Amino acid sequence: xxxxxxxxxxxxxxxxxxxxxxxxxxxxxxxxxxxxxxxxxxxxxxxxxxxxxxxxxxxxxxxxxxxxxxxxxxxxxxxxxxxxxxxxxxxxxxxxxxxxxxxxxxxxxxxxxxxxxxxxxxxxxxxxxxxxxxxxxxxxxxxxxxxxxxxxxxxxxxxxxxxxxxxxxxxxxxxxxxxxxxxxxxxxxxxxxxxxxxxxxxxxxxxxxxxxxxxxxxxxxxxxxxxxxxxxxxxxxxxxxxxxxxxxxxxxxxxxxxxxxxxxxxxxxx
Length: 270
Known about the structure:
Layout: H1 2-8, H2 11-27, H3 32-56, H4 58-63, H5 70-73, H6 78-97, H7 101-118, H8 128-145, H9 152-170, H10 174-179, H11 185-211, H12 219-241, H13 247-267
């Protein structure tokens, strides 16, 4: 059951988001216990989101033959996933308050927003909102835990990055989601519209992270912005020649990675 629980927790994004939070906490000078508290909070939140998501989506995942989903294939019961999700969500609250009351409240808001995406907002036109809110809360939680006040540019950049991530994350599942009645904003815009939305939002996040911190933009910001402005037009030219090309998807993924790097660098200047 342990292996199934791990796979149902969406381990890749859980580890990635937790790592980003831990690195940001280290960069902001938090002590080892403080870094551990921040990482544990984010990890508990991510585990709760993943388990609850798979419990809610079990029937849809089974209907489209998702063999990578333990609940859908029956190696993990829906009840077990839901119980572990609830336990992780409850555990996140006291862990969040280890970073202080303001940080704990922001962590709780991030989790509540993400769970609202799992149900009922995933299938609505406002499906992007929970991603924007939860991602904006992530750097805010870590900064508040360090005793500083998160600047508006950092909050905005987190929200833009999260909104862009929503469209990127939905792209591989558009067809399967359509078959099972999921009608979030990416599904309404379609593949081309979602790619354009993701590229626009991630480019805006790049610009915010490059020009938001005080003082002249660092070379990292200029470099990331230049790369983004270069790869996006090239990827769209490639997809016009080959409609099946994955170049646009790879381009927005590259920009997302650059934005995470800038988030870590920019967060150190608060």
